[in-house]
Design brief:
Shape: globular
Helix content: over 70%
Order of helices and strands: HHHHHHHH
Number of helices: 8
Largest sheet: none
Radius of gyration: 18 Å
Amino acid sequence: MPILTIGVAAATGTLHSPEHGWAGEVLTYLVLFALIALTASLWEETTWSGFVQLRLMDRHGLLVGSMLTVIPFGLIHLPLAFEADGWTGTTWSEAFVNWAFLLGALPFFRYVIGLLLVDTHGSVLAAAMLHASFNASGALSVVPDGWQYVPALVILAGLVTVHRRLSGRSLVNADVDPATELRRQRAS
């Protein structure tokens, strides 16, 4: 995520020079990543990946289960539009722009998380690390506008989807538990 985010910033001409050099930027990213992982993402993905998304994917498949997870996950993140300037300091147009980015990114985010859950047989830790990396990438000082991590996520989803397709794996139906997939194959 950080490399793709920096790549998007470079491609769009929005990449800023790091104030404390690239080593300082890498160190800041790693510290943010660790703090976000320990204080938010691990706990958040325990619920969203470990409880909600895994169950929805088991019932509805990878794609539909991931998209169904977007709805409550998105609703609970709507107040983040007011995080920087508060309720009174944020205009409605700023909130709508923030929500547009959020709602545009979430289907890609939950789908990549779903693919990760399938490929790691349900590792909530892996999902939390991706979530922390996504959030820490948006906070890089070299991308102060903070939007570059959203197209980076879309690119990541595309790359993972192409890799999965070239590997002959399904993009819409996949089971986290290999035993469940084997039972379904035998039943059909």
